[in-house]
Amino acid sequence: MDFQIKDRYDINDLVKIIEMLRDPENGCPWDKVQTHKSIRKNFIEETYEAIEAIDLDDKVLMQEELGDVLMQVLLHAQFEAEENVFDFADVVDGTAQKLVLRHPHIFAGFDNKTVDGVLQKWEEIKQAEKGQKTVSETLDAVPKSFPALMYAQKLQKRAVAGGLIEHEPYTAIAQLHSILDEISAKLENDEDCGEKIGMLLYSCVALAGATKNDAEEVLGLENAKMLDLYKKIDDKQP
Q1: For residue 161, what pLDDT band results from cuts at 50, 70 and 90?
Q2: What is the per-residue pLDDT across 10-28, written as a single tens digit (0 to 9) for each?
Q3: Is it the case that residue 110 has pLDDT exceeding 80?
Q4: How far apart (Å, rounded) are the C-alpha atoms in residues 229 and 235?
Q5: Whole-prediction pTM value?
Q6: Long-range contact list for 168-174, CB < 8 A, 24+ apart?
Protein backbone atom coordinates (compact mmCIF):
# COMPACT_ATOMS: atom_id res chain seq x y z
CA MET A 1 0.00 0.00 0.00
CA ASP A 2 1.52 3.30 -1.11
CA PHE A 3 1.89 6.04 1.47
CA GLN A 4 3.36 9.50 1.15
CA ILE A 5 5.32 10.94 4.08
CA LYS A 6 4.09 14.50 4.77
CA ASP A 7 4.82 17.41 7.06
CA ARG A 8 1.14 17.51 8.02
CA TYR A 9 -1.50 14.79 7.75
CA ASP A 10 -5.32 14.94 7.57
CA ILE A 11 -8.05 12.53 8.68
CA ASN A 12 -7.90 10.61 5.40
CA ASP A 13 -4.20 10.00 5.96
CA LEU A 14 -4.90 8.76 9.47
CA VAL A 15 -7.54 6.32 8.20
CA LYS A 16 -5.02 5.01 5.68
CA ILE A 17 -2.34 4.63 8.37
CA ILE A 18 -4.71 2.50 10.45
CA GLU A 19 -5.48 0.37 7.39
CA MET A 20 -1.75 -0.14 6.79
CA LEU A 21 -1.13 -1.09 10.40
CA ARG A 22 -3.88 -3.69 10.10
CA ASP A 23 -2.72 -5.13 6.77
CA PRO A 24 -2.67 -8.95 7.19
CA GLU A 25 0.66 -9.36 5.38
CA ASN A 26 2.66 -6.17 5.86
CA GLY A 27 0.97 -4.65 8.89
CA CYS A 28 2.34 -4.13 12.38
CA PRO A 29 2.64 -7.49 14.24
CA TRP A 30 0.80 -6.04 17.23
CA ASP A 31 -1.90 -3.98 15.50
CA LYS A 32 -2.96 -6.63 13.02
CA VAL A 33 -3.90 -9.18 15.68
CA GLN A 34 -5.97 -6.87 17.88
CA THR A 35 -9.75 -7.17 18.35
CA HIS A 36 -12.50 -5.09 19.94
CA LYS A 37 -12.08 -6.97 23.20
CA SER A 38 -8.29 -7.00 23.26
CA ILE A 39 -8.06 -3.19 23.14
CA ARG A 40 -11.21 -2.46 25.14
CA LYS A 41 -9.18 -1.45 28.21
CA ASN A 42 -6.97 0.74 26.02
CA PHE A 43 -10.04 2.76 25.01
CA ILE A 44 -10.94 3.27 28.66
CA GLU A 45 -7.38 4.24 29.61
CA GLU A 46 -7.02 6.69 26.73
CA THR A 47 -10.35 8.30 27.62
CA TYR A 48 -9.32 8.80 31.23
CA GLU A 49 -6.00 10.26 30.12
CA ALA A 50 -7.86 12.73 27.89
CA ILE A 51 -10.09 13.68 30.83
CA GLU A 52 -7.03 14.30 32.99
CA ALA A 53 -5.57 16.57 30.31
CA ILE A 54 -8.85 18.51 30.29
CA ASP A 55 -8.85 18.75 34.10
CA LEU A 56 -5.25 20.02 34.03
CA ASP A 57 -6.17 22.47 31.25
CA ASP A 58 -2.98 21.30 29.52
CA LYS A 59 -3.55 22.19 25.86
CA VAL A 60 -0.52 20.31 24.54
CA LEU A 61 -1.40 17.16 26.46
CA MET A 62 -5.06 17.55 25.52
CA GLN A 63 -4.21 17.58 21.81
CA GLU A 64 -2.14 14.41 22.20
CA GLU A 65 -4.69 12.53 24.29
CA LEU A 66 -7.62 13.47 22.05
CA GLY A 67 -5.58 12.03 19.20
CA ASP A 68 -5.12 8.79 21.14
CA VAL A 69 -8.89 8.58 21.68
CA LEU A 70 -9.46 9.18 17.96
CA MET A 71 -6.99 6.40 17.16
CA GLN A 72 -9.08 4.02 19.27
CA VAL A 73 -12.22 5.02 17.37
CA LEU A 74 -10.47 4.43 14.05
CA LEU A 75 -9.16 1.03 15.12
CA HIS A 76 -12.62 -0.18 16.18
CA ALA A 77 -14.10 1.14 12.93
CA GLN A 78 -11.36 -0.60 10.95
CA PHE A 79 -12.13 -3.93 12.62
CA GLU A 80 -15.68 -3.67 11.29
CA ALA A 81 -14.61 -2.37 7.88
CA GLU A 82 -12.58 -5.55 7.44
CA GLU A 83 -15.77 -7.53 8.04
CA ASN A 84 -17.75 -5.29 5.64
CA VAL A 85 -20.10 -4.24 8.45
CA PHE A 86 -19.36 -0.50 8.66
CA ASP A 87 -16.38 1.82 8.32
CA PHE A 88 -15.21 5.17 9.70
CA ALA A 89 -17.21 7.06 7.06
CA ASP A 90 -20.35 5.35 8.36
CA VAL A 91 -19.43 6.38 11.91
CA VAL A 92 -19.01 9.98 10.76
CA ASP A 93 -22.30 9.92 8.85
CA GLY A 94 -24.18 8.39 11.78
CA THR A 95 -22.85 11.03 14.16
CA ALA A 96 -23.73 13.86 11.77
CA GLN A 97 -27.24 12.45 11.24
CA LYS A 98 -27.73 12.20 15.00
CA LEU A 99 -26.57 15.77 15.65
CA VAL A 100 -28.82 17.21 12.95
CA LEU A 101 -31.82 15.23 14.23
CA ARG A 102 -31.24 16.07 17.88
CA HIS A 103 -30.73 19.79 17.30
CA PRO A 104 -34.05 20.86 15.74
CA HIS A 105 -33.54 24.34 17.23
CA ILE A 106 -30.60 24.71 14.83
CA PHE A 107 -31.60 22.65 11.79
CA ALA A 108 -35.41 22.44 11.82
CA GLY A 109 -36.76 25.72 13.16
CA PHE A 110 -37.61 24.51 16.67
CA ASP A 111 -37.98 27.81 18.54
CA ASN A 112 -37.18 26.77 22.14
CA LYS A 113 -33.52 27.63 22.58
CA THR A 114 -33.33 27.63 26.37
CA VAL A 115 -30.90 25.13 27.89
CA ASP A 116 -33.70 23.22 29.66
CA GLY A 117 -35.86 23.19 26.54
CA VAL A 118 -33.01 21.96 24.35
CA LEU A 119 -32.09 19.18 26.80
CA GLN A 120 -35.71 18.05 27.13
CA LYS A 121 -36.10 17.91 23.36
CA TRP A 122 -32.79 16.01 23.06
CA GLU A 123 -34.04 13.34 25.49
CA GLU A 124 -37.41 13.08 23.74
CA ILE A 125 -35.75 12.58 20.35
CA LYS A 126 -33.22 10.14 21.79
CA GLN A 127 -35.94 8.01 23.36
CA ALA A 128 -37.92 8.02 20.12
CA GLU A 129 -34.81 6.99 18.15
CA LYS A 130 -34.14 4.07 20.45
CA GLY A 131 -37.77 3.04 20.71
CA GLN A 132 -37.86 3.67 24.45
CA LYS A 133 -41.52 3.97 25.40
CA THR A 134 -41.33 3.30 29.14
CA VAL A 135 -39.20 4.60 31.98
CA SER A 136 -37.93 1.05 32.55
CA GLU A 137 -36.56 0.98 29.01
CA THR A 138 -34.65 4.22 29.60
CA LEU A 139 -33.23 2.76 32.83
CA ASP A 140 -32.13 -0.43 31.06
CA ALA A 141 -30.34 1.71 28.48
CA VAL A 142 -27.87 3.09 31.05
CA PRO A 143 -24.57 1.32 30.17
CA LYS A 144 -23.74 -1.35 32.76
CA SER A 145 -20.04 -0.73 32.05
CA PHE A 146 -20.20 2.73 33.67
CA PRO A 147 -18.19 3.12 36.90
CA ALA A 148 -20.56 2.44 39.82
CA LEU A 149 -20.76 6.07 40.94
CA MET A 150 -21.51 7.33 37.44
CA TYR A 151 -24.04 4.52 36.88
CA ALA A 152 -25.91 5.36 40.10
CA GLN A 153 -26.03 9.03 39.14
CA LYS A 154 -27.36 8.33 35.65
CA LEU A 155 -29.88 5.80 36.97
CA GLN A 156 -31.24 8.26 39.52
CA LYS A 157 -31.39 11.08 36.98
CA ARG A 158 -33.54 8.98 34.65
CA ALA A 159 -35.71 7.77 37.51
CA VAL A 160 -36.35 11.40 38.50
CA ALA A 161 -37.08 12.39 34.89
CA GLY A 162 -39.54 9.49 34.65
CA GLY A 163 -41.34 10.54 37.82
CA LEU A 164 -40.38 7.40 39.75
CA ILE A 165 -38.57 9.27 42.52
CA GLU A 166 -37.93 12.83 43.63
CA HIS A 167 -34.59 14.39 44.47
CA GLU A 168 -35.11 16.19 47.78
CA PRO A 169 -32.06 17.14 49.90
CA TYR A 170 -33.53 16.60 53.35
CA THR A 171 -35.03 13.26 52.39
CA ALA A 172 -31.58 12.14 51.23
CA ILE A 173 -30.01 13.42 54.46
CA ALA A 174 -32.59 11.53 56.53
CA GLN A 175 -31.80 8.36 54.57
CA LEU A 176 -28.10 8.84 55.25
CA HIS A 177 -28.68 9.19 58.99
CA SER A 178 -30.90 6.10 59.02
CA ILE A 179 -28.38 3.99 57.10
CA LEU A 180 -25.52 5.14 59.33
CA ASP A 181 -27.51 4.01 62.37
CA GLU A 182 -28.03 0.61 60.73
CA ILE A 183 -24.31 0.32 59.97
CA SER A 184 -23.46 1.15 63.59
CA ALA A 185 -25.85 -1.55 64.80
CA LYS A 186 -24.28 -4.12 62.49
CA LEU A 187 -20.78 -3.21 63.62
CA GLU A 188 -21.81 -3.57 67.26
CA ASN A 189 -23.14 -7.06 66.48
CA ASP A 190 -20.02 -7.91 64.45
CA GLU A 191 -22.17 -8.33 61.31
CA ASP A 192 -21.15 -7.63 57.74
CA CYS A 193 -22.26 -4.15 56.67
CA GLY A 194 -21.25 -4.24 53.00
CA GLU A 195 -24.84 -4.00 51.73
CA LYS A 196 -25.55 -1.04 54.00
CA ILE A 197 -22.39 0.72 52.83
CA GLY A 198 -23.66 0.28 49.26
CA MET A 199 -26.93 1.90 50.32
CA LEU A 200 -24.97 4.69 51.99
CA LEU A 201 -23.00 5.43 48.83
CA TYR A 202 -26.15 5.33 46.71
CA SER A 203 -27.83 7.79 49.07
CA CYS A 204 -24.77 10.07 48.87
CA VAL A 205 -25.25 10.14 45.10
CA ALA A 206 -28.91 11.01 45.68
CA LEU A 207 -27.88 13.90 47.95
CA ALA A 208 -25.47 15.15 45.28
CA GLY A 209 -28.23 15.06 42.67
CA ALA A 210 -30.70 16.76 45.01
CA THR A 211 -28.26 19.63 45.57
CA LYS A 212 -27.43 19.97 41.84
CA ASN A 213 -23.94 18.56 42.28
CA ASP A 214 -22.17 15.99 40.11
CA ALA A 215 -21.19 13.10 42.39
CA GLU A 216 -18.27 12.04 40.22
CA GLU A 217 -16.94 15.59 40.06
CA VAL A 218 -17.22 16.44 43.76
CA LEU A 219 -15.60 13.13 44.75
CA GLY A 220 -12.82 13.81 42.27
CA LEU A 221 -12.19 17.21 43.86
CA GLU A 222 -12.13 15.64 47.31
CA ASN A 223 -9.70 12.97 46.10
CA ALA A 224 -7.36 15.70 44.86
CA LYS A 225 -7.56 17.52 48.21
CA MET A 226 -6.87 14.35 50.18
CA LEU A 227 -3.94 13.41 47.94
CA ASP A 228 -2.39 16.78 48.66
CA LEU A 229 -3.03 16.34 52.40
CA TYR A 230 -1.48 12.86 52.47
CA LYS A 231 1.60 14.18 50.70
CA LYS A 232 1.96 16.97 53.27
CA ILE A 233 1.66 14.46 56.11
CA ASP A 234 4.26 12.24 54.45
CA ASP A 235 6.64 15.19 54.01
CA LYS A 236 6.50 15.88 57.76
CA GLN A 237 7.37 12.33 58.72
CA PRO A 238 10.97 11.74 59.81
Answers
A1: confident
A2: 999 999 999 999 999 999 9
A3: no
A4: 10
A5: 0.72
A6: 168/210, 169/207, 169/210, 169/211, 171/210, 172/203, 172/206, 172/207, 172/210, 173/207
Tens-place pLDDT, residues 183-204: 999 999 999 999 999 999 999 9
CA torsion 134→135→138→143, rounded to 10°?
A: -140
Q: Which long-range contacts (CB under 8 A, 24 or more apart) does 41-48 make?
A: 42/72, 43/69, 43/72, 43/76, 46/71, 46/72
Contacts of 210 (CB under 8 A, 6+ apart): 167, 168, 169, 171, 172
Alpha carbon distance 7, 99 (integer Å): 33
In the three-class reduction of DSSP (H, G, I as helix; E, B as strand; rest coil), residue 56 is classed as helix
Q: Which of 145, 149, 120 is nearest to 215 (CA)?
A: 149
DSSP state of 112: -
Amino acid at position 173, single letter: I
